[in-house]
Amino acid sequence: MSAAPERAAVGERATLRAEEAVVLIDRKERTYLRVLRPGRSISVRGAPLPCDALIGLAEGSTVETTAGEPLLVLRPTYAQLIPNLPRRAQPIYPKDVGPILLWGDIGPGAHVVEVGTGPGALTIALLRAVGPTGRLTSYEAREDFAALARDNVARYHGPAPNWTLRTADAFAGLEERQVDRLVVDLAEPWRLLDTAAAALRPGAVVTAFVPTALQVKQAVDGFRQHGTFGAVETLETLVRFWHVRDRSVRPEHRMVAHTGFLVFARRLAPAASREACGSN
Questions:
Q1: CA dihedral over 268, 100, 123, 211, signed as positive or negative
Q2: Which of 19, 22, 144, 213 would suit a FRET pair with 169, their CA atoms being 20 to 30 Å apart?
Q3: Kindly report the CA angle at 167 between 144 and 93, in degrees rounded to 5?
């Protein structure tokens, strides 16, 4: 089938558009993240491919490079996007983002504060989760990281009028109040607990991502000793892909094992409110 009938037959949502990100997958299932810019070419393993040849195609089409290599073209899923995201700092990877959204109970309409933005990988997931009716405020102390997060959100998420990015030190305080959810990606989250307690509404969920067991111990002890947090939980997620081809069915040789620990806690109501509830 020629490209022209295929372009005409697909719906608008299935059509690849200019300036959006795509992944190209080769015959060895290697993925390449690229952006379709009109009038320009993208390169895959040294072979150029005109963007105009892809714009208007149906998502899921197969194209060939000038070297004759077939490539499957798709919009990236979140899990495909993040490992290929331009970055200067380590992002939180999809295997941890899933539990953050679910155990952290982040959904449409929530008012969320993120501390430690990095390249914006988690920011994109949070924006997708809260939707247009929610609000997200991100704190990033480093201007270069903040600038990269702005670029990545603009390029790979799109307009986000409900997102505020503050280039500020969260340890100096959070401006927001009555926040529903707080997500912290800092080496010492226990130093933020006074500030977090002031920003969060009663019942709110705070999630801390920490990479080492010693940090987990300090974080959990900090939550429990603070007096304002309860229902503390800690988990680690391991992901093992499988190789399934012909008669070969086995675990992949490489495993996405430890990346970090997640600590979850709830903001308790003031003591006076708890006593009042207990007296009824």
A1: positive
A2: 213
A3: 65
Which tokens in the block code for residue 139?
């704190």
Q: Is 187 helix (H, G, I), strand (E, B) or coil?
A: coil
What distance in Å separates the CA atoms of residue 125 and residue 134, rounded to the nearest whole number? Answer: 13
Pairing of strands 47-50, 41-44: antiparallel
Q: Which stretch of DSSP H or E encloses residue 73?
A: strand 70-74
Residue 187: exposed, middle, or buried by beta-carbon count in 10 A (0-12, 13-18, 19+)?
Answer: exposed
Tokens of 190: 């226990």
User: Tens digits of per-residue pLDDT, 66-106?
Assistant: 888 899 999 999 998 888 887 777 788 899 999 999 999 99
| Token couple for 244 | 């399934």
Q: Cα–chain-centroid distance for residue 125?
A: 4
- The pTM for the full model equals 0.84
Characterize the bridge pairing of strands 62-64 and 70-74: antiparallel
In a 13 Å sphere around the CA of 119, the CA atoms on its Cβ side amount to 17
- Greatest distance between any 2 Cα atoms in the chain: 77
